[in-house]
Design a protein that fits this description.
Number of domains: 2
Number of strands: 17
Shape: elongated
Radius of gyration: 23 Å
Helix content: 25-40%
CATH architecture of the largest domain: 4-Layer Sandwich
Bound molecules: zinc ion
CATH topology of the largest domain: Metallo-beta-lactamase, Chain A
Structural class: alpha/beta
Largest sheet: 7 strands, mixed
Distance between the termini: 51 Å
CATH class of the largest domain: Alpha Beta
Oligomer: single chain
Number of helices: 9
Strand content: 15-25%
Strand order of the largest sheet: 1-2-3-4-5-6-7
Length: about 325
């Protein structure tokens, strides 16, 4: 296990040199993307640009790091803190969503740099953070030593006294900003997700799925469920995702790049329409009502459409004289 020389890692060509001059507060490095309300996505450079994000939450001068990326991305996280004017002593928490190395591999280096921070980890992941030898051996068996050295660098152990395990339902304050932990197995049994009440957002690690902006279309963001071995449990994962949705999130912060706004959409004969777009709904219903032989209107709300929008459509249809309208599909709206 060796540490690659600086600049040797694929995807890390833009590693920052930040020690000398502090940038102006607004001059964020290109690998830092503000998500609003004190949340920042840091492109860890893992594999390729815009592949994997770590998140910073900065609130009232204190900070939490949620997912760390692998060790070679740590200089970028430290560079982001520096550019934001957040001292290393202001980092209260380092919170890997789970202990896979692309999410937690840099935790040891970050805990060394942020000497006042506590590592918050799922109970099933704690021992691997304290002694990462099994994690390293398991990943090396899959990727081989060359790829491990290039993409994962070195995984450092963390003193158990600096770790705390989380509980399902546990609430935590970051300088008065409430975070909530949910045990979310399915991708891995050592996975928790973190709810940020301020943005109504979930930091989902690998639970919600992989998502890359390059594949988005007008119909919405592209997502793919994660089915990585060895603890992939489809039914359990489905239940965890449903639990995330039950919180009615406005934001999802997946580790794949980067945050998603959750739109509440519905279908119109296969076409996707923003729920609550009264003008779009009304013009379509008026066109239907104007036909001598009215066609059937199939309304296909998805799980995220709220009842009042469906009620608005039904009331509009009645007012305009649409006679054949029905809700199809076996998904329930909220
Ligand atoms: Zn994972």
């Amino acid at each position: 296990m060796t540490t690659p020389a600086p600049g040797e890692n694929r995807g890390h060509e833009q590693a920052p040199h930040f020690a000398q001059n502090r940038p102006m507060p607004n001059a964020l490095p290109t690998f830092v993307q503000p998500c609003g309300q004190g949340v920042y996505a840091v492109d860890t450079g893992f594999v390729r640009p815009h592949f994997a994000a770590a998140y910073l939450m900065v609130h009232a001068g204190r900070a939490a790091i949620i997912d760390t990326g692998p060790a070679p991305g740590v200089p970028r996280i430290l560079g982001a803190l520096d550019a934001l004017g957040v001292g290393l002593d202001a980092v209260d928490y380092v919170i890997p969503t789970h202990v896979h190395l692309d999410h937690a591999g840099g935790a040891g280096q970050l805990m060394q740099a942020c000497t006042g921070a506590t590592l918050l980890v799922h109970p099933r992941g704690q021992r691997h953070m304290v002694d990462p030898s099994a994690l390293w051996a398991g990943a090396t068996a899959v990727y081989g030593p060359e790829e491990m050295a290039r993409d994962y660098g070195q995984v450092l152990p963390i003193a158990i006294e600096r770790t705390q395990v989380t509980q399902d339902g546990q609430r935590l304050m970051l300088a008065g900003r409430e975070l909530l932990f949910a045990d979310t197995p399915g991708h891995a049994r050592h996975h928790h997700c973190i709810w940020d009440a301020a943005t109504r957002g979930w930091f989902t690690g690998d639970t919600f799925g992989l998502s890359y902006r390059e594949f988005d279309t007008a119909a919405g963001p592209w997502m793919l469920p994660t089915s990585t071995p060895v603890q992939f449990e489809p039914d359990v994962l489905r239940a965890s995702i449903q639990r995330l949705l039950d919180q009615d999130p406005q934001r999802i912060y997946p580790v794949s790049y980067t945050h998603l706004d959750v739109y509440k959409r519905q279908g119109w004969n296969g076409e996707v329409i923003e729920a609550g777009d009264r003008a779009a709904i009304e013009s379509r219903l008026a066109a239907v009502a104007a036909q001598a032989d009215q066609p059937e209107v199939h309304l296909r709300p998805n799980k995220l459409v709220i009842y009042k929008h469906v009620a608005m459509i039904m009331a509009t249809a009645q007012r305009l004289g649409v006679t054949k309208i029905g809700i199809v599909g076996n998904e329930q709206f909220l």
